[in-house]
Each structure stands twice: as structure tokens, then as C-alpha cells.
Request: fold
Amino acid sequence: MTAYILNLLVLISIYAILSTTLNFIIGYAGIFSLAHAVFFGIGAYTSAFVAMNLTPSFFVAIPIAMAVAALTSLALALPALRVRGEYFVAASLGLQMLAVTLFSEWKGFTGGIGGVIGIPPVELFGFAVVKPWQFLVLTLACLGIVIVVIRRLVHTSFGRSLKSIRDSESAALASGKNITIIKTLSVVLSSALTALAGGLYAFYMAFINVESFMLATSVLVMAMVIIGGTGTILGPIVGATLLMLLPGALSYLSFLPQTEIGSIQQIIYGAAMVLLMIYRPGGIVSPKAGGGTA
Amino acid sequence: MLLLQLILNGLQVGAIYALTAAGFSLIFGSTKIFHFAHGATFTIAAYLFHYALTNLGLHWTLGVAIAAASAVVFGIALDRFMYAPIQRHEGSFFTVFVASFGIGIVVENVIGMVFGRSFISVSTSLSRSVELLPDLYVSPLIGLAVITAVVCFVAVHMFLMHTHAGMALRALSENTELVKTFGLSPRRLSAYAFALGSVLVVPAAIFTAASSGLNPAVGHHVMLISLAATIVGGIGSIRGAAFAGLLIGMVENVALWQMGTQWSEAITFAVLFFFIIFRPSGFFGRAAVS
Reply:
């Protein structure tokens, strides 16, 4: 039972990093990405590659993974953010589908459909993090760092510029903000932090394949952000916790067919997204009840 | 000969893409609703057509009628019970997109639970290929798809240009306030747009079911094509979306000359990205760079 709870907590923390970083671009910059799982995947595959071919050191593998994800997102964001918001939705959906093909075809780097097996445990100052509780501490520390970084950023002039763009692009432009640069930077930063979650995931699971980085994951993370509440620090964490507990909770309801749990879970959060948008667009943790701030 | 074969296949796929994209473009252009659940409409129509023919053994005309009715009902219901309440209090891009996306997830999974998650296709006598020239296989479906697409586009064009409702719809895409001033109801026009846009996916759904087949997640692919074609063709231009759909279908198939089928979505992405970088306003669009 302890092992089950520890495992769940590690996964909740990893998904909380994912939803927090996605919230940074949805909630504060007003950019809708359907490609979050791509950067999660890039982080995971790159960390695994570095760990197996160079060194499993946390301070080598994770920064490399973050840099690769940041560069990839730069290539997507720079052209796609120059134009209207709908373009980014389309471009990120396209990237997500392209990435699934790449992840399953590029055998030298991703191991193809079979995935990467036998990723060594991560090393921190020469000390291998093997036990689940040790890993939980590491993941929670990373989550804490991500939250602090984003909180700080939101309260700087950069964060205020982002919110001004989200609320009115033309007003921000009129007050002399370089919208494209600010938006692109926010996507690059969010992708780099997403890759951190990817690296943690790869080291924790010791096995990764394309299944974890498909559109379904992007959708799940988006649901976490939206159900929890966009534009708040607490919202995405609440969303991640709720949606990660859902499969376990559903499997207690013995009258449900066990093979359909995955579908039922998706129907629940799909319906929750629709109802929230009609009645409470701010999400569960909403700054002001009933009123949309995003 | 292989190239000719691929061009012919591209024509069929392109006609299907053109119809899907035109439906999305019509709805998005006139109502400004980012109708991501357009893919769900496609899935519902295709699965009900398949069910009517394969499981109930109905005549294909009945199948088409069921598919068309379900698409129209689904489209109008979403407009009335989901988009209208959202637009009443806010209606930002965010809320509309998320709700639309949510309903897409629900439909995909309900279809998966009811009809199964595996790949299905409808086999008809029309989908059997005939060897027209040595090594050139042509099924009557190709011609039928192209003719249907042309007929649909002529009909839509006549409707938009020569009927009062069509003219009002075009006015709606220009200026909602002015439409109200003239005593027309944007809500009623919105229902027209959804009915027409949704019915346009029906032939596309049926041809896809009869040729390449479907699975419950086909909606995402449909949306990628629709969005890509809408952008490549120029936002707000139905004609542009149709041409762009044809172009994407053609490029996807001709690329098979050198690449495997798994790369077809990569090709779509490449076309889209090329346009975003070099011509963001698309073929016929208004300026899109902010």
C-alpha cells in the first residue's frame, strides 16, 4: 500500500509540473498548445539518451534535455506566434501528430515503438536516487522550484507584460510591448520546464515509449489546467491531483467494466470541461466565482 | 504509372478534405466560433453510416439520410445548448475552444465504447478497384467523390450568393452588429451556419468510411486537416479552404511516391508551416499578421 501511494504521489508531482508549466502559457499568456506532451517526450528521450550514453548525473542530463526542448519549441513558436491565436492551436496539433510519428520511427534515439529500456537511476552529487521515497523528495523539490520560478516571473514586469497581452493584444502593442518576443520567450521557458518533468519521468520509470507522449497526454494535461483553474498557482496542482486520483477511484466502483475505465475517465473530464466552460469558466480554483478571468 | 495512380488517389482524398475543411471554414468564418468539435460531427456521421449499412443492413440512401440528419442535429444542438450559453456571458476564444474540445473527447470515447476501438470500414461494390490501364487501379469512388464535392460546392455557392439566408450569413461574417440593426437574428443565422457546415462533412465522412476506413480517434486527424486547410486557404474564405484541402490531399498522396504512409501527417504539417512562415494570410485571406 505504501508503495502504491508513493508511486501515485511521484506521478501526481510529475503531472503537477506539467500542468503548472502549461498553465503558464495558457493562463498567463493566453496561448493554447496541444503539443505539451511533445516537450515532455523530448525531455524524457533526451535525458534517457544522455543517461545511457554519457552520464546519469541529474545536473548534466536534465539541463541538456531542457535545452533541446527549448530549441525545438523556439522553432515552433517563433513563426506560429507571429500570427493569430488559432494558428498556434493548429501548428501545435500538427507538431503533436508529427512528433508521435518521429518518436515511433526514429529507432536510434527513441527505440521506436518498443521504447527505451533500462534507463539507469539518476545520480545527484554522485549519489544514485533509487528508493521511491528518495525520488518523491527529488520530484517534490523540482515541483517546488518550478512553482517558485513561475510565481516570481508572474510578478515581474515580464509577467505583467504577458497578462497585458492575454487581456488585450492591441493595448499591449500600443504601449510598446514586443508581443512576438514576449510570447515566444514564455513558450520556450514553459517547454524547458516541461522537459524537466520529462527527465524525471524517464528516470523514475526506467522505461519509456511513445505511448506516454501522445495527443492523449497533451489533452489530459490541458484538462488538468482547465478543470483546476487557469491563471492561478494552485489550480493546475488541484487539477493534476484530481485527475490522477480519478482512475484509482473509478476502479473501486466495481459495477463499471474495468476495460472501459480509460474511456470513462476521459468522458468525465471531457464533460467536466464543457460544463465548467458554461457555468464556471475560471475552473475550480477561480479567482472570482462565476466570472472568467482567462 | 505509379505517379498517375497517386495523383488519382490524391484527387479523391483532396475532394474529401475540401468538403470537411469547407464546413469548418463556413462555421468559423460566419459565426467566429472555433468549432473544434467539427471532427466529432464527422466521426458521428461516419459511424452511424457504417452502423446503418453493416449492422442494420439498410439501403445506402437511408444510411446517408441517417448520417446527414445526425450531423445536422448534432451541429445545431451544440450551437444552441453549448455555444449559445457560453457566448451569452463571455464567449472568449478560450472558453469556446475548451468546451468544443471537451465535447470532442466525450464523443470520441462514447463512440469507442459503443462501436469498439478497432479500425472499421464499409465495403461497397463501389470501393472495389478496377484495373483501368496496366498497373493503374481505379475505383468508381474516386469519380463519385470528385463529382459529389463539385455538386456540394456549387450548391453552397448558389446558397450563399442567391438566397436571403445565404446573403445574411455572409453579412454575419462581416459585421454582427449591423446584422442585428437590420432586424435579423444572429442566433438563427448561426443555426443555419451550423446546419450547413455540419452537413458538408457527411459526404466526406461516408467516402472516408468506404475508402480508407476509420477509428474513433479520426476526429483529431479531421481537425488537423480542417485547421490546416482553413489557414492555408485564408481564414474566412470557403473557396480558399476547399482549394487548400484539395492541395493537402494531393501533396499527401504524391509524397507517398518517396515516403511511407506514416508520414502523411508530417506532410500536412510541413504545408501548414510553410504557409505560416511565408504566407500567413493564405491564398485568399485578409491580412492575418497582428
Summary: Chain B has eleven helices and two strands.
